[in-house]
Fold this protein.
Amino acid sequence: MIKQTFKVPDMTCSNCAMVIESLEDELPGVKRIAASYHKGAVEIEYDERLLDESRIIEAIRQKGYTALKP
Amino acid sequence: MDQTTFGMIIAAFLTGLTTGGLSCLAVQGGLLAASLAQQIETDLVQAIPSTGKGKGRPNRSVQRAANKSALPIAAFLLAKLAAYTLLGALLGLVGSYLTLSPLSRAILMIAIGIFMAGNGLRMLNVHPVFRYFNFEPPRFITRYIRRTARSEGGRSLATPLFLGALTVLIPCGVTQAMMAAALGTGNPARGAALLFAFTLGTSPVFFLLAYLTTQLGARLERYFLRFVAVVVLVLGLISLDSGLNLAGAPFTITRLVQGILPSAAESTALNSSHPNSSSSSALQQGRLELAVQNNGYFPRTLRAPANQPLQLDLVTNNTRSCARDFVIPALDYYALLPLSGRTTVAIPPQAPGAVLRFTCSMGMYTGQIVFE
């Protein structure tokens, strides 16, 4: 398990955080996602055998947001 | 008693229909827009999976998305209606135990003003610090909603329903007045009926404006958000100003504006609007008359001799606005005036140069008595 934080600057309200957190149920390998609009960041805990950084960034992009590595 | 309650409920409905819808959309539009934006966004992402948010050209899929927006708006409004009805019952219950004093209402309005202005600045992306003005629901709630939504087939109405219910946390100015009224009923059933009627009244305008906005397409959504941001900011400042007025603060935006343009409002009010209430004749009997009208108090500045007791007659004539909720903060005087009639306030002698400010309970309409 890896825990990683991404900056997501383009969340506009706490509803966006909810949208990103929905990846928790959609992206195989994700154990936990905590998106915070206040911090403009997404913390994600995932199984590195099933998932990698670039696929997470792409999945967040599919949701309409930009994830940046810190 | 029953007739009074019925009249009050009808008045609440009409208030909602006429003023509530517009002013509440401005305050709560952000929530509605957020809820709709997600809906539209989901539709867009589904329709054009290869392009990101806001990149899709307005085409038939956008049009389809807009057509689907009626349901989330309806869900939003239904949840709002239910939440406010519940709130009304709760306020009525609380109201049976206490009364909201003008000062506590002033503090509430100042707090709401800061909250709203902060949110306006947040929506305009002025600085990330303003993000903290946005209420972030606890994760267990969001997860619960998400899971519920998923179990209902992916795209449920949970978000607009939840956000609709959340609007109780950001009542607009007119709603606050109604909430205070619900509190004032001192009865859960009457409080619930009052806020139900008011919220129902606001719904048609809300629905229409929100629907038309989504029809304009997803791209304009951003402009709408920006527009809402500016409106929220302005309303926040108004609420702040009203709170300061209600607290009897000498320096408020209203007074600043009146100071810059002093003569116009006052003299016209004295001469044209109420020729009978010339202050010199009224003063001989130690009485002053103040016309309480739908659009404020006339004349705005009354002059009275110092060191003498004064009888202030508040004259309402089919007055339906919040001007009826009359407050003199310095005297801790508060009264809900009758629709039509005359209410006399005994004002104790004041020192020369003293200025007694009065306002409506919302801090929207103000005026003063200058003692000379």
